[in-house]
Amino acid sequence: MGNIDTMTFVKIILGISLAAFVTSFWVLMIRDCKDNMEGYERYKWFMILIVGNVIGALAYYILPRRKRKSEQGF
Predict the structure, then answer these.
(1) Can you give the residue range of the structural domain that contains 50?
(2) 9-25 pLDDT, tens per residue?
């Protein structure tokens, strides 16, 4: 086994960091859905989050959260 060069090491660290960030974001969106949605909307968004993973989490972040903020006056 040879030594890995600096760029390879940086790419590995960046990849692991990105994966950790994306997974944390996904889990936070699932938790937000659980805490703030009710009834059919909760199950619909939960399934979108599970099946869509990161794309579903981005959709959840943009669509329902914007609607809730406008209802609250933000």
Answers:
(1) 24-72
(2) 999 999 999 999 999 99
Residue type, 24: S
Q: SS in 3 state form for 50-62?
A: HHHHHHHHHHHHH
Cβ-contact 45, 33 below 8 angstroms: yes
| Domain count of the fold of the chain | 1
- Whether residue 1 lies inside any domain: the answer is no
pTM for the complete prediction?
A: 0.77
Residue 6 lies in a domain: no
CA-to-CA separations, 54 to 4, 5, 24, 38, 64, in angstroms, rounded? 31, 31, 10, 22, 16
